[in-house]
Design goal:
Helices cover 41% and strands 31% of the residues. It has helices at residues 2-19, 31-35, 47-60, 128-157, and strands at 39-41, 68-83, 89-104, 109-123.
Length: 163
């Protein structure tokens, strides 16, 4: 009896999902097609900017003469998240925010704007080389997280982009 009601619930949820107009973002005619190989990214001139651009281009493609231009602005700052008994920070949080503007290059109109933010932590206990490696790794992880969030935001508005 329990199995039957689960199957019925699953089947009815699939019908409801189809009825609401849901289509997968990465399906052949989904929202992902509206962005794939159609966005040129203006790379900020920092290491974080390079990492973010690399992550975005790996998902959107790298096209020099694209229809849309994405201009991200990256803001980073560190805060202490763990302090030892002798008042030394042993763990830092790297806070990041990306403000972005998606512009249609043919009409020079802004199609979408917004910001995404997240954080990542790393340990400051260890040798200076280990701390520097941990900081660089945290920055790379943070840029990957922010790129994922930015792509999700762009996919949400992709259905309204001009052809």
């Amino acid at each position: 009896m329990s199995c039957f009601s689960r199957r019925g619930l699953l089947l009815s949820s699939l019908f409801l999902l189809a009825a609401c107009g849901f289509s997968p973002a990465y399906a052949p005619s989904g929202a992902g097609d509206a962005l794939l190989n159609r966005v040129q990214i203006t790379a900020p001139s920092t290491r974080a900017g390079f990492l973010l651009t690399q992550e975005l281009e790996s998902r959107l493609g790298r096209v020099p003469d694209a229809r849309f231009e994405l201009s991200p602005t990256i803001l980073l700052r560190s805060t202490s998240s763990a302090i030892s008994e002798d008042n030394v920070a042993t763990r830092l949080n790297l806070l990041g925010r990306v403000d972005y503007v998606l512009r249609d290059r043919t009409t020079d109109t802004i199609v979408s704007t917004g910001s995404v933010d997240s954080f990542n932590g790393y340990s400051t206990s260890g040798t200076p080389v280990a701390v520097q490696a941990a900081e660089r790794d945290a920055e790379a992880r943070l840029m990957r997280i922010l790129a994922d969030q930015l792509i999700t935001r762009l996919l949400a508005v992709a259905h309204s982009l001009p052809e």
